[in-house]
Amino acid sequence: MSRISKHDALIATLAYADVFDYALTRQEVSRWFLYYPVGAVTLPKHTGFSITNRISPRQAGKWNIAARSSRWLASIPTIQLVGVTGGLAMNNAGIRDDIDLFFVVADGTLWVSRLLATLLMDFLGLRRHPQDQRVADKVCLNMFMTASATCLPVRDRDCFTAHEVLQMVPLWEQNGAYQRFLRSNQWVSTYLPNAWKEKKTAKVDQMCTSFPLVIFLMRLFEWPAGRLQLWYMVRRRTHEVITDTTLRFHPKDARIWVKRKLAARLAKFHIPLDKVFYAS
After folding, report:
1. Tens digit of each residue's pLDDT (9 = 90 or more) over 171-180
2. Less Cβ around it within 10 Å: N or C end of the chain?
3. Which domain holds residue 107?
4. Are residues 169 and 143 both part of a single domain?
5. What phi and psi values does residue 79 have, to the nearest 5 degrees?
């Protein structure tokens, strides 16, 4: 059970969305309600946070680009899951924003999968480059994880990461990769039990691009693909996370400013940040 009351959890739910200038609909308040399983929610008066009947047609073009990119990426047999993250996943992307994509790839193909995805998006003129000043509608190959290592480390398990996991919108998968990703991160259900329940039954488009022999052969190129890309990154490294099973390319750690802004909003209601941001 959460260490905060249900009332404070409601305030925290609204405050978290407000950090992103994202007024929730009534349905979304229930979906993203922190810590407590709920049905319909009665909103308190005078919180300073609004709800909306949002319609976001401006997102349609970005979703079309994401879908088109993902169909091309399906030609890479080592990729098992492609999903949209960031603002677009919540239909809250600005006109000038890029499109963040998340990948699960076959074990032993982390670097070769990224290399092929990068070359493909470059060929199509869709990839965002680190030096780009104008990134609107460009595709950012944001995060790669190998299939057997999708469980996020304990140090990253907090309210922010729980939202990121459950906000991700899968575009297509192979052989149940999305549900395996969710099961390996079941800890998020403590933070967002309603969104977890909804995502557990989500239907995802299936792609049949798995060719074991081809994947075996591609693994032979994993080492040189990794060395090549690490060499290229030497003078361009910022805050990337690079391990044997994960590549995460975030120029800035959003968790830092999210915590700061959330703390300021919660302080108005005398709700300690740590009781909201961490479940244990």
Report:
1. 999 989 999 9
2. N
3. 67-190+204-249
4. yes
5. -80, 130
Q: What is the pLDDT of residues 183-219, one digit of tens each?
A: 999 999 999 999 999 999 999 999 876 688 999 999 9
Is residue 30 within 8 Å of residue 39, measured between CB atoms? yes
Contacts made by residues 135-138, CB under 8 angstroms, sequence distance 24+: 135/96, 135/97, 135/98, 136/95, 136/96, 136/97, 136/98, 137/61, 137/62, 137/65, 137/98, 137/99, 138/98, 138/99
* β pairing state of 99-105 and 139-146: parallel
Tell me the residue type at 67: A
Backbone angles phi, psi at 144, to 5 degrees: -125, 135
Distance CA 35, CA 196 (A): 11
Query: What phi and psi values does residue 57 have, to the nearest 5 degrees?
Result: -65, -20
Distance CA 119, CA 111 (A): 12
The rounded distance, in Å, linking the Cα atoms of 89 and 208 is: 24
